[in-house]
Amino acid sequence: MDKKVFKNYLYNLVYQMLAIIIPFVVTPYISRVLGPRNIGIYNYTYAVATYFGIFILTGTTTYGQREIARYQDDFLQRSKIFGQLLLSDFFALV
């Protein structure tokens, strides 16, 4: 096996293991520090923000397809629209 592939495999393995183990360590600590009331407040605000994000992203796919198809022959305009859609999706998800 190539050295780079093996090194990449090890990094990926460590990442996957940490992604599984860290929540088991962090969740009880966060729960104890925040308490039930603050966890409920956090979950409520997160749900409201998620609904806004879903609402914002609902029409962007259809709009993007329509606008890209409209300017399929104009490279500059198509690139501009693509960049605008990419930025709007990025900021909607952040």
Plain-language structure description:
With 94 residues, this protein is an all-alpha fold. Helix content is 90%, strand content 0%. It is built from 3 helices and no strands. The mean pLDDT is 89.
Overall pLDDT level: 89
Which structural class matches the secondary elements? Answer: mainly alpha
Q: Strand-and-helix sequence, N→C?
A: HHH
Number of helices: 3
Spans where pLDDT lies below 50 across 5 or more residues: none
Question: Mind summarizing the main beta sheet?
Answer: none
Radius of gyration: 21 Å
What is the terminal-to-terminal distance? 39 Å
The percentage helix is over 70%
The total beta strand count reads 0
Shape: flat
Q: How would you concisely characterize the structure shown here?
A:
This protein is mainly α. Helix content is 90%, strand content 0%. The chain has three helices and no strands.
What is the element layout, followed by pairings?
Elements: H1 3-57, H2 60-70, H3 75-93
Helix pairs in contact: 2-3
